[in-house]
Specification:
The protein has 294 residues and is of the alpha/beta class. 47% of the residues lie in helices and 8% in strands. Helix 10 runs antiparallel to helix 11.
Amino acid sequence: MSTIVLPNFLIVGAPKAGTTSLYAWLKQHPSVFLSDVKEPCYFVRGYQGGFHDWAEYTSLFSDGGGYAAVGEASTAYLPSPESPGWIKDAIGDVRIIISLRNPVDRAWSMYSWMVMEGFEPLTSFEAALDAEGIRKASQAFHTHNPEYWRDYLYFDGGLYREQVERFLEAFSNVHLILFDDLVAQPADIFGGICRFLEVDASVQPEFTAENRSRFPKMTRAQYSLRSARDVARNLPVGRKPLTMAAESLMQANVRHGTQRRVSSGTRARLRDAYRDEIESLSRLLGRDLSHWLA
């Protein structure tokens, strides 16, 4: 019988904090094996589109034998309370990499990405923030939407302290980085991660930025186009041309769109709402995060 290869490290989030870039950089390292599927999200209950079968999940790493570091990247693990204990029970005390971003910027970036991908029907960030309480409390919303329901919790997703603490309590090797540093000093941050994974830190990948968001020209239409694409994919006949047509229209809608910024008023309101959380996280990590409040 062949030996099952299990990951010995995980990139767990936060969403929209540079994990896609980090994943792309680490895939270039000759001693690192990362699953070809980013976001398998096996250790998250009810994740749409994720891997739910253990054999299917472990098959992602079947070619990882002989690599010093074997891993995957699923940002849904960080905000999901069940994930740390489940990971620990299933694959042991693996190394954990967490990337955090200014929660105001992360919330806006997450909303922008959700709109771009056609997952978010609400056409204003403020409306989505106002809807968050209802969405969080609604079991129907948790199970009947096109994306993992926690991804719609733009404010709640930035309440990092409890999320990080769960992983610190479950695992003995946790490496935490900040998105600010990843952008400003990619080589230094990458070298530190390599040392954490005990692989050659002199390797220099191509430091490209990945997964940037752009608002579609017609935000509501993007949601409708995604819905039409998903319906077309399930048709018994003629699904390929209809799916391709919907995808082409989605891409064109984004291509003719724009970059946007969160309004100064909403930014100030969110910064005040996050103040206590940021100060608490700063104490937990022993790191000054006051620049997030500037």
